[in-house]
Amino acid sequence: MARARSYPGGRRAQDLAQDLGWRLEALAYDAVTLLARAFPIDAVSDFGAALLRRLGPLTSAHQVVLRNLRIAFPDLSPEAIDALADAQWVQTGRTFAEFPIIDRIVAAGDRIEIVNGERLAEIARTAEPVVFVSGHLSNWEIMPAVIAHSGVVCHMTYRAANNPYFDRRIRDNRFRYGVRLFAPKGGDGAREVLEALGRGESVALMNDQKFNGGVAAPFFGKLAHTAPGPSRLALRFGAVLQPMSVQRLGKARFRVIVHPPIKPISSGDRSADIARSVDQINAFMEERIAERPAEWFWTHKRWPNETYSRRRR
Predict the structure, then answer these.
(1) Using an 8 Å Cβ cutoff, are 149 and 178 in contact?
(2) Which residues sit opposite 241 in a β-bridge?
(3) Which of 12, 111, 174, 224 has the fewest CB atoms nearer than 10 Å to its CB?
């Protein structure tokens, strides 16, 4: 058998090729951003809706969407499931297209309605540290913009992109609409979050995606592994969980709702306290999704693999 030959500098060539690919991706994003910012806000949103409504069903993610909808809404007819899948691609397309122009949406002044904004004002006034929780509802990027503009000092957690040039552009874009403090997921970000809460500052986390090794909590009648991080932080620092949600009112117009806070119960049994708090967060998310199912991001696998296997059988 012929032996595979190794070439000096092969790893270096791979690194250079990857770096070139990353730079090209970043340049493509720059071109899309420049184009989007040249058009009216609603036109950009409409374009994203039309594009993903056509392309989304052609991707493998469409099958994930259909399976998720059947798990969450087992009593719906196939026709209703297809209609929901179509509607969620429209919403997802709008959200992605709007990302480069969120600062324009925020600056417009009349495109975002805030319900119970006095609660944010209270948090800002008292410097009360809270753990904001929410999920990928409608255009979820609107929520951190509202928090930042309310005067609340809040660190936004996020998953850093693999492409460092693209990640830099994402951060720069968020900076344009007021988000200044970031805490990337991982060891460094965890330390930043703990230090922030220790200083009396707030943190915001998305809590609606699958978290391997997390707490198994009910979600649409099935157990779903859920990140315990927000609940742990709230219990550790004696803070409340502050739920928020966003709804789309039409094209690029939104309603942001600041919901009543959730006060985790500290009974001395830490595991039980965390599990109880995670149950409350999942119940909150399930209610929001059931209210407006087309506006949730259905393209990720929320439940364990065995749930999907049983569904197929």
Answers:
(1) yes
(2) 131, 262
(3) 12
198 closest CA partner among 238, 245, 147: 238
The 10s digit of each residue's pLDDT in 15-64 is 899 999 999 999 999 999 999 999 999 999 999 999 999 999 999 999 99
Round to whole Å and give the CA distance between 305 and 301.
8
List, for residues 217-271, the tens digit of each pLDDT value: 999 999 999 999 999 999 999 999 999 999 999 999 999 999 999 999 999 999 9
Q: What one-character DSSP code corresponds to residue 110? A: S
Q: What is the pTM of this model?
A: 0.90
**SS3 label, residue 218:** strand
In three-state secondary structure terms, 176 is: helix
> Burial of 116 by CB count in 10 Å (0-12 exposed, 13-18 middle, 19+ buried)?
middle
Nearest to 173 by CA among 98, 253, 251, 248: 98
